[in-house]
Specification:
The protein is built from eight helices and five strands. It is α+β, with helices and mostly antiparallel strands. Helix 1 packs parallel to helix 2, helix 1 packs across helix 8 and helix 5 runs antiparallel to helix 6. The two termini are 19 Å apart.
C-alpha cells in the first residue's frame, strides 16, 4: 500500500472546511506527543512552502483524561525523547521525568489550542508549538489553565475571554469533536498529515517525516488526475 494512494472517507462533514474546494493540508497531532514535538519544524516548513494551500490543525487526543504520571511513563518517554533529540537536534528538558505528581493528561493542552483557534484561527499552528514548548522546554503544568492563559497573553488574546472559553463545556465539546474527527479519518498515530485534493482526502504521512520527503509526497498526490 502506497501512502499517496490511501483514500480516506469521512462521515463527519460538519467541519465546513472539509467541503471547501481549495487544496488543504490537514495536520493531526497532539501537543504532548513526543514525535509531534520533533515534527514541529518539518510541518512548519511544509506550511511555508505551500502558501496557496489552506492549512488546518486537528487535535488527535493522545492521552485525554490520562491518569498515568511522568514517573509511571518516565522510562518509556525518556527513550523516545533521546531518539527525537538525536534525529532532530531539538532540545528537551528532562526535568519532568520521574515526577509522580505530573499527570500526563493531554486533553487540556488540546483544548487550549481549540480555544485559541476559535478566537484567532491564523495562530493555531504557532499556538500549538507554544503549548509544545511549555511542556518540552518549560516543564509547565499541562493541566493548569494558568499555563495556557500565559500563552494566550503572549499571542495578544483577551485573557479573560480566553479563560472563560477554556473552562466552558463548549470548548470541551469542540475538543472532543476534533478527537472524533481524527478517529473518523482513521488516524491511529501522530503526527499525521492528510492532503485534500480534488475533493478527496489522502494520507500523506502517518509518523515523522522530513519536510522534503513530505513535500514530494504531497506533490505526487496532487499530480494525479
Amino acid at each position: 500500500m502506497t501512502i499517496k494512494s490511501t483514500l480516506i472517507f469521512l462521515s463527519l462533514m460538519s467541519y465546513s472546511w472539509l467541503q471547501a474546494q481549495n487544496p488543504t493540508i490537514i495536520y493531526i497531532g497532539d501537543p504532548m506527543c513526543s514525535w509531534c514535538y520533533g515534527f514541529a519544524p518539518e510541518i512548519t516548513k511544509v506550511k511555508e512552502a505551500l502558501p496557496d494551500h489552506e492549512f488546518k490543525v486537528v487535535l488527535g487526543g493522545l492521552r485525554p483524561q490520562g491518569t498515568e504520571t511522568m514517573a509511571d511513563l518516565g522510562d518509556f518517554l525518556e527513550h523516545h525523547w533521546k531518539e527525537i533529540e538525536k534525529r532532530t537536534g531539538l532540545p528537551i528538558n528532562y526535568g519532568s521525568i520521574g515526577d509522580d505528581s505530573f499527570i500526563l493528561d493531554t486533553e487540556p493542552g488540546c483544548r487550549a489550542i481549540v480555544v485559541a483557534r476559535e478566537m484567532k484561527p491564523e495562530i493555531e499552528l504557532d499556538f500549538f508549538k507554544a503549548v509544545q514548548r511549555a511542556f518540552y522546554i518549560d516543564n509547565k503544568d499541562m493541566r493548569s489553565e494558568k499555563t495556557f492563559i500565559e500563552i494566550a497573553d503572549k499571542f495578544g488574546l483577551d485573557t479573560s475571554a480566553y479563560a472563560q472559553k477554556f473552562n466552558s463545556e463548549e470548548a470541551r465539546y469542540n475538543t472532543r469533536s476534533d478527537f472524533h474527527l481524527a478517529a473518523e479519518m482513521g488516524i491511529k498515530g501522530f503526527p499525521s498529515v492528510i492532503v485534500r485534493h480534488n475533493s478527496q482526502l489522502y494520507l500523506a504521512a502517518n509518523g515523522f517525516r522530513d519536510a522534503e520527503d513530505l513535500l514530494k509526497i504531497i506533490s505526487d498526490i496532487e499530480s494525479e488526475k
